[in-house]
Amino acid sequence: MSDECKRIKRAFETAESALIVSHLDPDGDSIGSMLALGRILSNLGLEADYYSEDGVPKVYRFLPWADRVCNRVAPDKSYDLVITVDASDIKRLGNKIVLSEVGKLIINIDHHPDNTNFGSINCVHLTSSTAELIYKLAKYFELKIDTEMAKCLYVALITDTGNFRYENTSKETFLMAAELIEAGISTHEISTKIYDTRTVPMIKLFAAAMGTLETSENQKAAWVTVTQEMLQKYACRSEQLVGLVDHIRSIAGVEVAMLFREEKDGVVKVNFRSKDKVNVSEIAQKFNGGGHVKASGAVFHEPIEAVKAKVIAEVLRHPS
């Protein structure tokens, strides 16, 4: 990625303003990469703004600079640079921001295989996470990775590799993690903040969601459903449930797992996970979603039962 780094370096050196943008329904990689990149820009003398249409999930708000992330851009505001992180397609950024209106130059930094290369500069590589690309940028700029930047990068790394369990984990991933630990982070503290802070209502909601478990006739596909009524009953937010789909994937014999989440205003979000035989990115793309071969998502604007019917039918068309 040396050629891209050179172009990015020139863009960073000539810009006087920058906006870093995460994708909808942001995960740890998107938030961690965004904040770490902001630290890189700050070290280079350029203070960036941060934008996420859906804000920062509560579980990641302990990260440094997370309180600077906004969910709106002033109508008359424009930037020399707009940098998108962890977004495979411009549609993944939401409909409240039009990149061509707010940015003169678009830099697209991502690791998804289905990236549409929508940027003026595209730094797209199949690494474990977008954080791995941000880390390589920091190394290219010969910047010291301090504890705060390391914390952001580590959160991004562990959440996108499933704590180093997924196939996207490589030797380079572990070498990067080792350097982040050397920078002074506490892996125990970070893991505790992400994975050990569930409340009693959240556990009750998990139990209720598990009670909706359904499977295909051959039990190769399994799914759970969370409605607005359930969320309101337990006073929880939909974003707190994303990890639930990984539990469904863990069922012996299941090849495709799905989580159907009913949001407000008629929005339904679907999270897909797979094991070895099904490319769920292809399934998500049929519904204008996307992601990875084994972890993808899509957003719908129709009733949840209609969404379930069409999505499950599509999944069952794929041999597993």
Report on this model:
- By secondary structure, the chain is of the alpha/beta class.
- The chain has two domains: 194 residues, inorganic pyrophosphatase (n-terminal core); 117 residues, Diaminopimelate Epimerase, Chain A, domain 1 (Roll), CATH 3.10.310.30.
- Helix content is 38%, strand content 18%.
- The protein is built from twelve helices and twelve strands.
- It has a six-stranded parallel beta sheet with strand order 3-2-1-4-5-6.
- Strand 9 and strand 10 form a beta hairpin.
- The longest helix is centred in the first third of the chain and has 16 residues.
- The relative contact order is 0.11.
- The model has no long low-confidence stretch (mean pLDDT 94).
Backbone shape: globular
Say how many strands there are: 12
> CATH topology of the largest domain, what is it called?
inorganic pyrophosphatase (n-terminal core)
The CATH architecture assignment of the largest domain turns out to be Alpha-Beta Complex
Residue fraction in strands = 15-25%
The oligomerization state is single chain
